[in-house]
Amino acid sequence: MSTLLNRPLANVAANFEVLRATRASRLTLFVLLVIALAVASAPWWAGRDALHDFVQLASYLVFAMMWNLLAGYGGMVSIGQQAFFGIGGYGMLILANYCGISPFIAVPLAALIATVVAVPVSLVAFRLEGGYFAIGTWVIAEVFRLTFANISALGGGSGTSLTALQDVPRALRESLTLWLALVIVAAAIGLLYAFLRSKAGLALTAMRDNAVAASSQGVDVKRARLLVYLMSACGTALAGGLYFIGNLRISPDAAFSVNWTAFGIFIVLIGGLGTLEGPILGALIFFVLNKFLSDYGTWYLIGLGALAIVVTMFFPEGLWGFVSRRYGLQLFPVGRRVLFLGNGASVRSAVDDAKEKPGASSAAHRA
Amino acid sequence: MNTLINIIVQGVLLGALYALFAMGQSLVFGVMRLTNTAHGDFIVMLVFVLFALTSFAHLPLAVALIVLLVIAFGSGYALQYAVLNRVSSRDPLPSLIVTFGLSIVIQNVLQQVFSADPRSVATGSFESQSMTLMPGITVGYLPLLTLAATVVLAFGMQWLFGRTPLGRAFRATSDDREIVQLMGVSYRRTYALAMGIAFVLIAVAAALYAIRTAVSPTDGPALLLYAFEAVIIGGMGSFWGTFLGGMALGIAQQIGFYFDPGWGIWLGHIMFLAVLVVRPQGLLPKTA
To answer: Which residues pair with B134 in a beta bridge?
Structure first.
């Protein structure tokens, strides 16, 4: 018996490789670099509208990516991430207008503040589970909205303007905002990718699929959830600070509106929950829809809502999820593939540990 | 002293309305573990249905109310059976997103059909009649009626759940929907029945709310939050808990309103968060 087992295993043990990058992923990296260069040079060839559009797209995209991190990878569905979006925006404004710090530096500082605020918030929010965790986070966002709406020094309910950039010539301001947007998007994608490739990312995927089993393998579920929540808060605040530099005017209703989460959910759902490529694809689609259809006002929103319902019920994997499963593509390789080499012909066996649908098992959050 | 009593009395009356909003949500979550993000929008939708019945169809209020209850039951049953049954499972994400999408659709359809103006249902002078109990403390007839309705419905729901075969079916389906089919109970129809009854509760709340204030199509989310807070504060699984939770929320908001109109709702939210930190299972918890 043992000789029967030993021979093939010995062959296998000596002849396999674990691969991470795929041909598609190398191509993607190249394409992304080209796009990044094109965007970076945009102030010299694109119009003002295009620059403004990119900054807006960047805000939506980073918000959606952070929501995806929380829900698709962390298994925590939150409708209250706009709380950190608003804190990022207001934090940037306060630091820039009242503390004399350049708004572009104030954005990461505000993100830091938001991350610190997220710690006590998580203590409260993590008391709830599942669907009620979602609504609880919404209540927390409302608390922030009402708090800022009652501070008359910040303009109360009607908001205030970013005056710190008054003396900067418009072309320079718009270029700097664009580059900030590019840096934030690149940092968000890059750091998320690095995080998901790491051991921590593997632990996260395990935790999402089955928290109890992951815990039995030594994953500290509570700490991992807190870490993901803080990361998501930080990224969302970056998006918030960026958006309001582009907008120059902030108000509690704009900063803490639940519509941010609604659009973020829509982007992630259309693109594909629990994938890195999904939100990017979803954001592009959403932006195109927004550009051409938002003139129709209520009909556009009705269409978005109906589309979200249909996609959730019939296409839960989203567009990218469908493509990825059909063609086996993964542009940001967070999984691993085992390549067996032996007896002349190589036998490929794909082991994909990061593409499981999060809804397949219990995604209920446990405190 | 009278001011304090007045705040508490007004808080109780306001809380009765919130408890009424929350009854439907308590039922839905208790039976189906469904997170209904569109709960507030359903209330607003039924307000506008009532408005259409009284203003466009010119039905007298009493007839319109009966028609409203029938429409409510029917649409709740149909909605659950056709749409929400597909997403009522352990995973909260699909039900959350589908109801979120429904919320957006309802708000915008109402805006499209009725415009964004706030409207209310007129009942002559009933909505502003009141009686004075003591100097400084005046209670309106409508809030008293709301309180009475809430108490009756809380009794009714508790009786339904505790003493009727339907209530047993609800409790059994809530425990394990696969096994309950062995007992001859179709969980799909049970869920649909539960949603239909929840919609009837929502219709009562909508009617009283519409008579009390002017409602606009985008009021839904705020009502959802009050209902949800009342359920959590009171403890999930108990209708009397929901009743008490509504009271607590109403009193907290009234205290906030007393100091400054801008801080009323804020104080309600803060109290909810405080309860969450100190006693997360709520005041009268029956289920986990």
So the answer is: B137
